[in-house]
Automatic annotation (TrEMBL):
GO cellular component: plasma membrane
Localization of this protein: Cell membrane
Family matches, as Pfam families: ABC_tran
Family per record: Belongs to the ABC transporter superfamily.
Domain ABC transporter stretches: 2-228
Subunit text: Homodimer. Forms a membrane-associated complex with FtsX.
Identification of the protein by name: Cell division ATP-binding protein FtsE
Main subcellular localisation: membrane
Gene3D superfamilies: P-loop containing nucleotide triphosphate hydrolases
Gene Ontology biological process terms in this record: cell division
An annotated Gene Ontology molecular function: ATP binding
Topology term for the membrane: Peripheral membrane protein
Entry-linked InterPro entries: AAA+_ATPase, ABC_transporter-like_ATP-bd, ABC_transporter-like_CS, ABC_transpr_LolD-like, Cell_div_FtsE, P-loop_NTPase
């Protein structure tokens, strides 16, 4: 599903965030991306949804080469990918239902389809009873659940999560992980950058470690591998 071939990324300030990365990720996998701060994890993640473009090399998502994809086609690519951020990125003037529905409105889905899909994902994340509340009325964990619901309402084959539990307390983090596990069990590929050692060591999946712009470790059922 995802393939990076000899990918380099050098920023204008001279920092090399990807230094010849080669990796393949299959449909349905759950992959943790770990590594110290500044190691290149965020760049690795962002290149998968074309927030960043490689300096050289090829990145394929479902056969589409992101390195050569025209800017006008990027919005269509992102409709196939769900992205979850550490800081939620919810629209403050829209309620929970409207925040999730917005992702479908921009692709001009019918009101009937929008209502069904929004209510289905709200049920999955346990927030049907808070559909009319606004982000400021929710806890951090609830806001992250809304963010996850929004990311999967288009039924994407790939969900990319960048430190999704970074701003959450431990109990809430486990609740969020249970949701990601359920999403993955339905066949969705999950790529998650994280610093949460306990989660990685407890819920075992493939671990890709990034350091100095290189993949230094790639193992199935691996542990976090760094000191807290």
């Amino acid at each position: 599903m995802i393939e990076m071939v000899n990918v380099y990324k050098k920023y204008p300030n001279g920092i090399v965030a990807a230094n010849g990365i080669d990796v393949e990720i299959k449909q349905g996998e759950f992959v943790y991306v770990v590594g110290p701060s500044g190691a290149g994890k965020s760049t690795f993640i962002k290149m998968m949804y074309r927030e960043e473009r490689p300096t050289s090399g090829d990145i394929f998502i479902n056969g589409i080469n992101l390195a050569t994809l025209k800017p006008s086609k990027v919005p269509y690519l992102r409709r196939q990918i769900g992205v979850v951020f550490q800081d939620f990125k919810l629209l403050p003037r829209l309620n929970v239902y409207e925040n999730i529905a917005f992702a479908l409105e921009v692709i001009e889905e019918t009101p009937k389809v929008i209502r069904k899909r929004v209510m289905d994902v709200l049920e999955l994340v346990g927030l049907k009873h808070k559909a009319r509340m606004f982000p400021t009325e929710l806890s951090g964990g609830e806001q992250q659940r809304v963010s996850i619901a929004r990311s999967i309402v288009n039924t994407p084959k790939l969900v990319i999560a960048d430190e999704p539990t970074g701003n959450l307390d431990p109990d809430t983090s486990w609740e969020i992980m249970n949701i990601f596990e359920e999403i993955n069990s339905r066949g969705t590929t999950i790529i998650m950058a994280t610093h949460n050692r306990e989660i990685v060591n407890t819920i075992r999946h493939r671990v890709i470690a990034v350091e100095g712009g290189l993949i230094t470790r790639d193992e199935y059922g691996g542990d976090y591998g760094y000191e807290s």
